[in-house]
Write a structure and sequence with these properties.
The chain is an alpha/beta fold. It has a domain at 4-69 and 104-171 and 267-345: FAD/NAD(P)-binding domain. Helices cover 37% and strands 25% of the residues. The chain has 13 helices and 19 strands. The strands form four sheets. A seven-stranded mixed beta sheet has the order 6-5-14-15-16-13-17. It has a six-stranded mixed beta sheet with strand order 8-2-1-12-19-18. A hairpin with a 2-residue loop joins strand 18 (274-275) and strand 19. Helix 1 (12-23) packs parallel to helix 10, helix 2 (48-57) packs parallel to helix 10 (295-311) and helix 10 (295-311) packs antiparallel against helix 11. The longest helix is centred in the last third of the chain and has 29 residues, at 316-344. The model has no long low-confidence stretch (mean pLDDT 90).
């Protein structure tokens, strides 16, 4: 079996896939079209399944050292009333680790550092991908061409490779929401590690980081393409009267630091994550709404599972068949759960529906809430040696 791979896409999933493949003996090149890798406005939460994947990739210790555990917080109403409390200690007892928060740029740097110099090629368009038959794949790179035994498409929600493999698939659809997010410019005094606040058709949340700064995000029900000339002012109006520390988080953010993206998902499940010697990974395979915080964790699961499946041999095709059989049911189930979480959370706008949801959440025992979280966090990675 040949052991050369090209990974298209240098995000979290693509880098993790490259690390995993190298750990099982593959030669890997990652091509990333962006010349500058900059995710400065974003933070990320990693649950036990994502951290265990990182452990198997050999970077879990470094990621934990750069992260802040989420032990306190939960879900609130705009007035500040608690709907559900986060019991990070109970989660840690159950799965061996709390959820952690880390700047996305820090996680990305740690993944890059785990690869040899020259593995990641930035500012390089993948060019036309040509599937040359069962033996090799070919990726154009400027005036040169990369031939490989495997193509890993980690090229995001609008994956050109996915479009080539499954031209009849409808592709990503808008969920009806947009997200604005930013990192604070300086430390903010916070009393919790993580919070979500749900109002009618709106959500505001924060993740606290090790250095005292925080990432905040606001999810709003808005038509696709809606943009604000002054996002900070629009957010202050929309969240006027919402509880602390929301005003402080907005005050600690420079207006030009706010990023905005419409929220899309792959609502129609793919019939396969593989075709020939090409495999889809991360958002290219199963882009989901962010309402369970599982997007990156599922991409990390993909990366470890792919490496283990290929290491088991005896052929690339056999390994990819194992990957698809393991990953597609789980990732698509998590995507469905994330969609349902949006419908029951930020997606509710009618006052009666919001009131019924809030009452149900307040009456749900904390143990039941913990069990619901653990349903997705409990995952044992395959060993990579």
């Amino acid at each position: 079996m040949g052991r050369t791979a090209v990974v298209v896409g240098g995000g979290i999933g693509g880098l993790a896939a490259a690390i995993g493949l190298r750990r099982v003996g593959w030669e890997v090149t990652v091509v990333e079209r962006a010349a500058v890798l900059d995710d400065a406005g974003a933070g990320i939460s990693l649950a036990a399944n994502g951290l265990r994947a990182l452990d198997e990739l050999g970077v879990g210790t470094a990621v934990r050292a750069a992260s802040r555990g989420q032990y306190t917080g939960g879900t609130r109403t705009p007035s500040g009333r608690w709907l559900a409390r986060l019991d990070g200690t109970a989660l840690e007892r159950a799965v061996g680790t709390p959820i952690v928060g880390i700047p996305r740029a820090t996680l990305h740097r740690l993944l890059r550092d785990a690869l040899p110099a020259g593995t990641l090629l930035t500012g390089v368009a993948a060019g036309p991908v040509r599937l040359t038959g069962t033996d090799t794949v070919r990726v154009g790179r400027g005036d040169t061409v990369l031939d490989a035994d495997l193509l890993v498409a980690a090229d995001g929600i609008r994956s050109p490779v996915r479009g080539l493999l499954f031209p009849a698939h409808p592709g990503p659809v808008h969920t009806g929401a947009t997200v604005l997010r930013a990192l604070t410019a300086h430390p903010v005094e916070l009393t919790t590690d993580f919070e979500l606040t749900w109002g009618g058709g709106a959500e505001f949340g924060h993740i606290a980081f090790l250095d005292g700064r925080a990432e905040w995000h606001a999810v709003l029900d808005l038509p696709a393409g809606t943009r604000f000339t002054d996002p900070s002012a629009a957010l202050r109006r929309r969240f006027a009267g919402w509880h602390d520390p929301i005003p402080a988080l907005l005050d600690a953010t420079p207006p030009d630091a706010v990023l905005q993206h419409d929220v899309h998902e792959l609502r129609a499940p793919l019939p396969s994550f593989t075709a020939g010697r090409t495999v889809l990974l991360g958002d290219a395979a199963h882009a989901m709404t962010p309402h369970l915080g599982q997007g990156a964790c599922q991409a990390l699961e993909d990366a470890v599972t792919l490496a283990a499946a290929l290491a088991a041999g005896p052929t690339v095709e056999a390994g990819l068949a194992r990957y698809d059989a393991v990953r597609r049911p789980r990732a698509q189930a998590v995507a469905r759960a994330a969609r349902q979480a949006r419908r029951l959370g930020q997606g509710l706008s009618h006052p009666l529906a919001v009131a019924l949801r809030d009452t149900a959440m307040r009456l749900t025992p904390s143990r039941a809430s913990t069990r619901m979280i653990l349903r997705h966090h409990r995952w044992t990675p395959p060993r990579l040696g």
